[in-house]
Amino acid sequence: xxxxxxxxxxxxxxxxxxxxxxxxxxxxxxxxxxxxxxxxxxxxxxxxxxxxxxxxxxxxxxxxxxxxxxxxxxxxxxxxxxxxxxxxxxxxxxxxxxxxxxxxxxxxxxxxxxxxxxxxxxxxxxxxxxxxxxxxxxxxxxxxxxxxxxxxxxxxxxxxxxxxxxxxxxxxxxxxxxxxxxxxxxxxxxxxxxxxxxxxxxxxxxxxxxxxxxxxxxxxxxxxxxxxxxxxxxxxxxx
Length: 239
Prior knowledge:
By secondary structure, the protein is of the alpha+beta class. The chain folds into two domains: 4-80, CATH 2.40.50.140; 89-238, Recombination protein O, C-terminal domain (de novo design (two linked rop proteins)), CATH 1.20.1440. The chain has six helices and eight strands, in the order βββββαααβββααα. The protein has a five-stranded mixed beta barrel with strand order 1-2-3-5-4. It has a three-stranded antiparallel beta sheet with strand order 7-6-8. A hairpin with a 3-residue loop joins β1 (7-21) and β2 (25-32). The longest helix is centred in the C-terminal third of the chain and has 19 residues, at 204-222.
């Protein structure tokens, strides 16, 4: 019998990804508030009469119950919580991009409760606001911060000198912002770094440079992994 310690009841979670497993089941990549990322099998979820068919949706808050202590747990029950509008169009693609980031950067069984709350808030923001770029930059910055890779955006690397808005810098991964010497790193204006520190993306220059900077930093920590949703969003924006 499964011990009580290996059972978890009504845990708040989101489905990040799912794919068919055996003949009638689904294998879920789940992000839960108190237990982090988990692999959970939903047995019989693909059967026509299964109560789970309309519940295990992406971007919708769920209460999940599961058991087991191995690498893959077993779903016991799932309840839809509501309150989150369905994502559509570009917002939907942005949501898949967030999920792909979490899948590639979060370790299994490592809870990040503040990041979970920020993810949920970002989904709500994507559904209600048109400035998706600002929502993505804010989430990317908070994700790296939660993982211990916070960007220093207010001081020069290796010193206590404040970043000045009128100065141009070179941002180097693993170091930070350095005076622009024309060599390594990404060229970025001081005003962009300060605006990112305040989550202010009203300036077109800030929008462009912050996207380049976050892409460089994420690529560095992804270690060569390709984000397919990022490429798809780029293709859609060209049309």
